[in-house]
């Protein structure tokens, strides 16, 4: 510093001349930095992993998790940082301590915001923007060391003689434009591999990213860099290398708190190297005659944060999608490319801007670089990216639901069932049309694109937190749920294929149920019964399924992609449907027919799309038809197999689908549903529709006839005994898309087999069609004991429901 300039307040005097300074403060700072990096990255990974475990296991989300982890990080990082800030005499070490301490406190405040559920992402982004802005304002107003301008080396123009410093007044300086160019370069992989959410979500992400940039600028302003740009010719290398390392740790802590669980992980990889870029910008700015100021930090960090905040949905950075090349894969690709770009920028900016006897960057070159990269971002988005807005929607559930009491049973069998279904359809549609009119008109006037439903009296619509609050306050509205939508992928996920040979006879699970004996001894295969499958789809060309498709223009519905013929890329739906009605020893009822609907896309669904399929099953309609006016209740399938559940992460609450299953039951359509794979915990049957009393809920056993470890246990909410039955669900061989076969585990595999048994019973005695109470009683009365689960829940018959379904005994009883 200049001879007549006092040392920055708070840092103390430099070491006495001629006396070497102690290396221990530097060693302590290095150790503290390593500790900070390892701890921050580890706890962020642990927090995300725990949340994913909760999702996979079906456990309740613990809102205290992230506040607790953020507090632990702040304490464990902040204490050594505080010691570095107060004890050493070195200005650089003390600046390091203050920077890390401020970032640790910022992480505490920002990370705690993750207590908000992921389903309320827009609210989280608004809270992030407000909190980061407030922290930035507080940081800039706290007392601290004043920024100093270091002396210029021999031959370098002084600040007053540098034309760049004065000519750039009122317009972006070259170093700011270079920072913008670097930030745009970091956006490129996210624009290529990611996709935006809705308009409001994107705007809030931009505000949040801007606020994070402001916070980073407050922590890494000129007073932070001043000690690293001190005396002597080596200051350029020291600014970039030492200052860049310290700044990188600050950035690591800031981005660790930026983004909902999952969205912060990419930033931990590619944002810290930007500390070296900022160091190089400091050198370049001071060569131009003045400190860099806050603008380069704001732009660089803000643009870097915008990528994962806006172009990756944290709900989709999930283990639920990690088995294929889905969002987690592409986020990892974008992060890896971003890290490579950040390293190249760090090296390139360091070499070009901080080399010995280097010149200050020219504004024209910097502006041209920024303009070219901005154009490149736009071109990549339109040509190679996923342009457009892909936001979530809202499901508005109305207070008044249709009154389905007093529907006459009518004549036994199919004729009576069809009459009941027609009456249920009439009442549901009438109630929806009478009660939705005013709300639909208001939503249409606001251009919110309402989609009405009648199976549950509800409307799906566009809208964010403000629209949700407005809707929740309307007298006719019971509650408003978030209806999830998946963002598009840069390339289709590969279709699941089977790698097992086809069956040579009835599979072990078919023999365990006695279904093969039903075919051979009782001459019953399920003929005359229709099974409805709501799942990921069905490969209608598979040899074991092609001949069983009912056909016509009302036997297939795909609300996701609007395909016109049965198809399936996920494989789950093909596997489950074939277990119910597949031929060649795969399915329980190979003579039954099937109809299908796609309610899962890439293993995720939404309340509205689950309703789409259940509504289609009550009253099928032709492609492009209106469910309200074109429904054909007389074409409803007899029994529905549902190997899915709607957890809170998809937007459902406990009662979201309750009116739907009640209406199907009133219509005489049997709903069979998977218990879930969140065992062995007791009381783990929680996701709709499995806990509902009018649903036939199915658990899984293995070859040893014992309940599998993964099968969810009862009791359900209210103490109801669930599951109702168990069936083979471990290593079950069935069909996969493309003509192959695979053996899969899960209550998903057990569920369609019970639906197949019902098809056999109703085929053997058509008078049972629609008689749900008698059908349930026969299934339970003829079930065989299942092996007790060696768990705290105790024997399966005592605490998790009835026994193992027996197809042979059930069909014989049905004929009596």
Textual characterization of the structure:
The protein is 47% helix and 8% strand. The chain is of the alpha/beta class and 816 residues long. The chain has 3 domains: 24-152 and 173-389, no CATH class; 393-483, no CATH class; 508-623 and 632-814, 3-Layer(aba) Sandwich (Rossmann fold). A 7-stranded parallel sheet has the order 8-9-7-10-11-12-13, sandwiched between helices. Strand 14 and strand 15 (740-744) form a beta hairpin. The protein is elongated. It starts with 23 loop residues before the first helix and ends with a helix.
Distance N terminus to C terminus? 102 Å
Strand arrangement, major sheet: 8-9-7-10-11-12-13
Number of helices in the DSSP assignment: 25
Question: What percentage of residues falls in helices of 4 or more residues?
Answer: 40-55%
Shape: elongated
Biased composition (Pro residues): 1-17
Pfam families: Peptidase_S8
Transmembrane segments: 24-43, 63-86, 98-117, 123-142, 174-191, 203-220, 240-259, 265-285, 329-352, 364-384
Domain Peptidase S8/S53: 526-786
């Amino acid at each position: 510093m200049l001879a007549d300039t006092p040392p920055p307040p708070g840092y103390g005097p430099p070491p006495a001349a001629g006396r070497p300074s102690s290396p221990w403060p530097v060693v302590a700072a290095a150790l503290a930095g390593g500790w900070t990096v390892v701890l921050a990255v580890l706890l962020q990974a642990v927090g995300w992993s725990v949340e994913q475990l909760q999702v996979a296991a079906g456990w309740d989300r613990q809102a205290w998790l992230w506040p607790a982890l953020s507090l632990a990080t702040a304490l464990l990082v902040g204490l050594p940082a505080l010691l570095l800030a107060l004890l050493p005499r070195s200005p650089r070490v003390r600046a390091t301590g203050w920077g890390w301490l401020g970032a640790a406190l910022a992480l505490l405040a920002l990370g705690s915001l993750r207590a908000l559920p992921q389903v309320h992402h827009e609210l989280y982004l608004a809270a992030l923007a407000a909190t980061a802005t407030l922290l930035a304002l507080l940081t800039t107003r706290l007392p601290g060391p004043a920024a100093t301008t270091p002396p210029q080396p021999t031959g370098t123009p002084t600040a007053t003689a540098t034309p760049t410093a004065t000519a750039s007044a009122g317009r972006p300086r070259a170093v700011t434009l270079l920072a913008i160019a670097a930030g745009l370069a970091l956006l490129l992989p996210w624009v290529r591999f990611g996709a935006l959410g809705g308009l409001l979500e994107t705007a809030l992400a931009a505000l949040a990213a801007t606020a994070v940039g402001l916070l980073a600028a407050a922590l890494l302003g000129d007073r932070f860099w001043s000690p690293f740009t001190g005396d002597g010719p080596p200051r350029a290398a020291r600014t970039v290398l030492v200052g860049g390392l310290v700044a990188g740790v600050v950035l690591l802590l800031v981005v660790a708190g930026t983004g909902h669980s999952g969205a912060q992980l990419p930033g931990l990889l590619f944002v810290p190297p930007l500390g070296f870029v900022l160091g190089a910008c400091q050198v370049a700015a001071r060569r131009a005659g003045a400190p860099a100021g806050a603008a380069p930090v704001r732009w660089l960090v803000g643009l870097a944060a915008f990528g994962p905040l806006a172009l990756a949905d944290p709900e989709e950075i999930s283990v639920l999608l990690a088995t294929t090349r889905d969002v987690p894969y592409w986020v990892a690709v974008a992060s890896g490319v971003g890290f490579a770009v950040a390293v190249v920028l760090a090296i390139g900016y360091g070499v070009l801007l901080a080399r010995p006897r280097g010149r200050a960057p020219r504004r024209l070159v910097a502006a041209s670089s920024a303009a070219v990269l901005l154009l490149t971002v736009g071109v990549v988005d339109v040509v190679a990216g996923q342009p457009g807005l892909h936001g979530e929607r809202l499901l508005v559930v109305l207070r008044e639901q249709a009154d389905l009491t007093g529907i006459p049973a009518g004549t036994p069998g199919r004729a009576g069932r069809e009459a009941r279904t027609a009456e249920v359809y009439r009442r549901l549609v009438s109630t929806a049309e009478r009660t939705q009119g005013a709300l639909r008109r208001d939503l249409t006037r606001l251009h919110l694109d309402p989609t009405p439903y009648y199976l549950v009296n509800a409307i799906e619509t566009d809208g964010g937190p403000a629209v949700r609050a407005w809707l929740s306050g309307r007298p006719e509205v019971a509650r408003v749920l978030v209806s999830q939508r998946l963002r598009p992928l840069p390339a289709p996920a590969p279709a699941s294929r089977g790698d097992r040979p086809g069956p040579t006879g009835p599979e072990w699970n078919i023999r365990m149920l006695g279904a093969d004996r039903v075919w051979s001894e009782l001459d019953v295969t399920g003929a005359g019964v229709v099974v409805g499958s709501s799942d990921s789809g069905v490969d209608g060309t598979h040899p074991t399924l092609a001949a069983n498709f009912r056909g016509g223009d009302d036997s297939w519905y795909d609300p996701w992609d609007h395909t016109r013929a049965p198809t399936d890329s996920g494989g789950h739906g093909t596997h489950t449907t074939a277990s119910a009605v597949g031929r060649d020893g795969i399915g329980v009822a190979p003579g039954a027919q099937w109809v299908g609907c796609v309610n899962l896309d890439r293993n995720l669904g939404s309340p509205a799309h689950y309703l789409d399929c259940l509504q289609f099953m009550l009253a099928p309609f032709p492609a492009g038809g209106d469910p309200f006016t074109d429904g054909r209740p007389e074409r409803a399938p007899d029994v529905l197999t549902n190997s899915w559940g709607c957890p809170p992460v998809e937007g459902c609450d406990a009662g979201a689908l309750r009116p739907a299953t009640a209406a199907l039951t009133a219509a005489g359509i049997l709903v069979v549903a998977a218990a879930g794979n969140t065992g062995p915990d007791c009381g783990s049957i929680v996701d709709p529709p499995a806990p509902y009393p009018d649903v036939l809920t199915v658990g899984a056993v293995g070859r040893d006839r014992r309940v599998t470890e993964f099968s969810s246990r009862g009791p359900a909410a209210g103490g109801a005994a669930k599951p109702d039955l168990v069936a083979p669900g471990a290593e079950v061989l069935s069909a996969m898309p493309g003509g192959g076969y695979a053996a899969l585990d899960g209550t998903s595999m057990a569920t369609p087999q019970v639906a197949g048994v019902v098809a056999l019973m109703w085929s053997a005695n058509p008078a049972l069609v629609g008689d749900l109470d008698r059908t349930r009683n026969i299934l339970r009365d003829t079930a065989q004991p299942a092996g007790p689960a060696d768990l705290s829940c105790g024997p399966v018959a005592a605490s998790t429901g009835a026994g193992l379904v027996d197809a042979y005994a059930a069909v014989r009883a049905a004929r009596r």
